[in-house]
Structure formats: structure tokens, C-alpha cells
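Regression report. Comparing outputs from two consecutive submissions.

Submission 1:
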Amino acid sequence: MTAIREVSIEDTMTQLAQMGEWVSDGRETVLGPHMLALADWVDSKVVEFAIQARARDLTVPSMIDRSILERAGYFESFPASMVEEFQGGCMPPATCYHCYAKLADTSLPETGVWTCITRCRRNEDNVEAGRMQTFTMREIVLVGPAAWVQERRQEWMDRVLAFAQSLHLVVQLDAATDSFFAGGQARGRKLLQQIKGLKFELRARMDSRSAALAISSFNLHETFFSRRFAFHLADSADAHTGCVAFGLERWALALAITLGPEQAFRPVEQEQQ
């Protein structure tokens, strides 16, 4: 088992900043070439897993219409959230909303797995190390009967946990809450979400003092999104959905802090030679 480094998160992030690899003004963060390459390397491994799972690649735009977020119930679920609107739409708070919009008002002849990636933005005040307002999210979206979606999510949890451990990250899978439901009843529904085990997070522990950082999440939505977007399975059977999300910059940061920048960058450099 990999031991947690004695060097603190703050010291490593200072080192990364001095190297020009993690430049942050408290709101926006710019990654340097090695950190970008490390995030891309992690993404390439996730894509390999997606191909093995027969996921279909879904190209999504960089912006999303506000009407899609409204249909998804985003502002009901997160009433305090602010979404900045630009010419052409909003930056999505999560990649998977694009997928549900593309499935809207359809009947799916069979179960489906999709993968998509885009830049996302969440206007959060949390300044915890590794939490970025603008970030890159790779997602795997699962659509099918309830039991099938649950089984596929478990497979992804096992697969990603083993992958993280193979990289010598100190990780744990924890039940979590991040309600997709209406804000006025959020407290009770978050409890229900936790009881049902609808959300798990893979959290990386990077030093002995700081809280673990969530680098991936594994979510079951039941029929929430399929009903919002009016898609179903053959013979009008209910479609359940789930998603697996990867915060790529967080993965890169976890590796750089846990292993040290030089060791974390080494496998990427070796593959590029």
C-alpha cells in the first residue's frame, strides 16, 4: 500500500506554481504543459476502459443551452447556483447533460453506454485545494433497466478503484450526496439518496492533514433524467440512467501531490518518447 507523503499539499502546490504547472488566482486555474499532458494521459486510460465497455463516443459542444439545464431541473436542484451565460449558451456544470438532451424524446432499442468530454464550469465559493471553477470532465453515461445500470456502475467502481491503486494513489470509495432533486426538499432527499447508495465518490488522500479530494463520482439517477427528457426503452419501459465522472485536472493534481511532480510526470514523458 502506498504511504501518504510527508510533504504537504500546500508545499507541493507551491512547487507546481514555481514550475508554472499550476497557476491560480483563486478563481481560475491554468495548467502548465506537464500537468496538461498528465491530465490527457489519465483521460486516454479512461477512454481505453470506455472502448472495452463498448461505449459510443459522443461529441458534444462546448456550450449548452440554458433551456436544457432548465429541463434537467438543474436550477431546481441547485437553486443557489449561478450559471454564466455567453453568446451561444452556458458552460455546462456537467458533461452528461449534453447526452440526455441528445436522447430526448426517443425510444432506445437496447441498453447504451456513451462517453463524452467537455469543459465545465461551476461558480462555487469553495477554495479547497483542487476545486476549480472551470475544469475538464470526462463522463461515462449508462442507460438501461435499473439492475443493468447498477451492475455497470459497480463494474466501473471496481475498475476505477483498481486503476487508481495501480497508480499508487491513496484512495477510498465513500457514499456521498449531491442531490439531483428539488431544492425545497433537498435535506430529506439527500438522506434518501445516501440510504439508496445513489452516489459514491472516489477520494484521494494526499497528506495526513487535509481532507481527501474527490477525483471521480459514480452516480445513479433512477428515472429522474429519462422522465425529464422523455426517453425510454423499447416497449415504453422505464429507462434508468447512471454516470461515471472524472475530474481530469483533479486526477493530475492527486498524482502530482501523491507521487511528487517529477515521478508523476515520468510515465507521460516515457510514452511521448
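Submission 2:
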Amino acid sequence: MHIQIVFAVKNCQSSFIRKEHKDEVEKYISGIIANNNCKLLAIYCNPDHVHMLIGSRPNVLLSDLVRKIKSSSSKFIHEKFDKNKHFAWQEGYGVFTYSRSQVNLVVKYIMAQEEHHRKKTFREEYMIMLQKSKIDFNEKYLFD
């Protein structure tokens, strides 16, 4: 299965994942994914949210994987970067599945996040992703 996982910093606070820490956070999350028998295909940590595309086997429980990614990376950010003592991920997350033929397009999309967010906010981007996937939602429950 090819799965894009998206989640935001609590209260969508921008600049919580600082540019100078981005690579370390991405490498740390990559290790969590590998240790859970999945393959990271792409990751991009924005200042206020993260996108990742993973290859996963059907026997991997996604809710457990996301919980491990969020809790472990949050602890890592707290311990490693003093200025992020108030850092927290929002409670929920989005999961979007893709066929093998879509993988390259999704990887390009994820890796172009910096350019993409010059035009759209995370909130706008996420709403479009939900709408394109025909996912019913109540905006009131999307963001902390």
C-alpha cells in the first residue's frame, strides 16, 4: 500500500519546525518508519505540518504507526531543541492511499512543499486534499 500521512502542529502554529531542524526531524521520523517495517518514499517537514509517503504492508496498523511517529518525534523535538518546549502535534491526522502509478506524482508533490506553500496555506491545502478524495468532513473538527 502507498499511503500519504499528513498531520499538523497543534493549533497550526507556524515556525515550530524550524528550517535548521527540518533535516534532523525528517531523519528521525524516517528511522521510526523503517523500524516499523515500512518504507519511506518521501517526507517534507513544513514549519507547521508534515507530509510523508510510505510503502506499507497490509498487516501494519496505521493508527499504531502514526501514534509512534507522533509521540516519538514529539519527544525527540522536545529533548533535542530547547526552544521547542511547547511543541505538540495536533490530535488527528489525514491518511490518503495511492496506486503504484500515482507514487511519482505524490513524491513530487511532497518534495515541492516549500514552493507549494508560497501560494496556499496548510489549511487550504488540506481542505483541497479532503475534497479531491471525496472525504466528508466538518471543518470545525479539522484543526486544534
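Expected: both submissions complete independently.
Actual: both completed, but the second showed a warning that disappeared on reload.
Relevant detail on submission 2: The CA atoms of residues 32 and 84 lie 20 Å apart.
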